[in-house]
Amino acid sequence: MGEPTPQEQAQQDQAARAKEAFNFFDRDQTGKVKITEVTNLIRCCGQRPLDMHVRTTVKKLVEDNKLPKDLADMPANGCVTFEQFSIILDDVTKVCEGIDAYKELTQAFNVFDGGSDGMVNVDQLTEALTTMGEKMEEQEIQALIKEVNVEKERMVLFMPLVEKLVGKRAAQ
Q1: Coil, strand or helix: which one is 151?
Q2: Full-prediction pTM beyond 0.85?
Q3: Which of 34, 35, 43, 121 has the highest Cβ tally under 10 A?
Q4: What is the DSSP letter of 100?
Q5: Rounded to an integer, what distance in angstroms lies between the CA atom of residue 59 and that of residue 45?
Q6: Crossing angle, helix 101-111 and helix 158-166, to 10 degrees?
Q7: pLDDT digits (tens, 9 = 90+) for 61-83
């Protein structure tokens, strides 16, 4: 048994990173983490999924009997073991390979960029995020907006918001 191939080494590194992140999120050392924390946990493992990608994946895995049925709607009191998390992580990784969340969010924000200056109105953005698509709670939006500069007339540059949601884009 010689040295692992670069692909095997990458898989071992990802598995070790996943276990380390899982243990960090398992604050009470119960061997489980809340299902509601899975998206952030996956992001700690180097992936950049949107919450809707994780929710869709969990529902599909429940339908395929790979996860317990009580996790289908990702209830606030639901928990997953490391093995269950690994199944979710593997599936999300496959799903997200062909998805560019950075590009998708940039295109979505462009819809609200009336002046084509890279800025969006905070009030319009808040209304859209709380009423359409994957709805966010208003306090989540306010926490996100608090981290970026709000300009005159309640306008905000949207690229810093995109970077907060999915991370900085690697140079192409």
Answers
A1: strand
A2: no
A3: 35
A4: -
A5: 21
A6: 150
A7: 999 999 999 998 889 899 999 99
